[in-house]
Amino acid sequence: MERAALLRRLTWQTGTVISTIQETPRVKTIALAVEDWSGHRAGQHIDVRLTAPDGYQTERSYSIASAPEDDYLSITVERLDDGEVSPYLVDELREGDELEFRGPVGGHFIWEDDLGGPLFLVAGGSGVVPLRSMLRHHRAVGSRVPVRVLCSARSLELLIYRDELMELAADDLIDISITLTREPPSSSWRGYRGRIDPALLSTTGWSTRTEPLTYICGPTAFVETAAAGLVALGYDARRIRTERFGGTGV
Predict the structure, then answer these.
(1) How much is the average pLDDT of 132-143?
(2) Under 8 Å CB-to-CB from 156, ≥6 apart: which residues?
(3) pLDDT (tens digit, 9 = 90+) per residue, 208-232?
(4) What whole-number distance in Å separates Cα of residue 137 and Cα of residue 143?
């Protein structure tokens, strides 16, 4: 049984685009219907493969944005101007098109209710994608684990899942903080401003006495800064899980 599941994850399969949502001017969420989908765990990713008419192939990894309980498999893609894959996915892919992928992949950067908490989820830019999967899973299973979320974005307009995050913030168990690094919306903005540093992590995170379980996702420099800041505050490095990717800073 385990061997069959492994072979399924390593085998290229096809999903049909059911819908697309424009999250920001450069970011789109793509929902796929997949026949015989074996499921995933919150925090995993898939490998997407594109094949050109001349046979040239290229692959990229994308975090899964949907919860295991959602009806469709979703990824959220940020368009990179020099990218080989993201411009096609964001600008050209349409409902009814097919997309080749394999997965799910990854076993370290995952969260399930039995792992407990309290949870501290720290995201930079599109690093919020796998954390959204965790938050959706948290809600779907009725978890009682308390969660604190810190998202960094260049501006409120560029905050991915902005409306969904605001909706989740109404949950008594979920506390969401936003820091804007470049363009605060107005003088009435009540969130934070500036890049993540130990002071902001201390204000928005948990007391070290609670032994929080932390997930950090974003560009490499962002992740390293956040992880180092938390360790300096006394967080247990063994309970900090990180996921890095290339691309723009926040």
Answers:
(1) 97
(2) 162, 178, 180, 183, 184, 185, 189
(3) 999 999 999 999 999 999 999 999 9
(4) 8
Answer yes or no: is pLDDT of 2 > 60. no
0.70 surpassed by pTM: yes
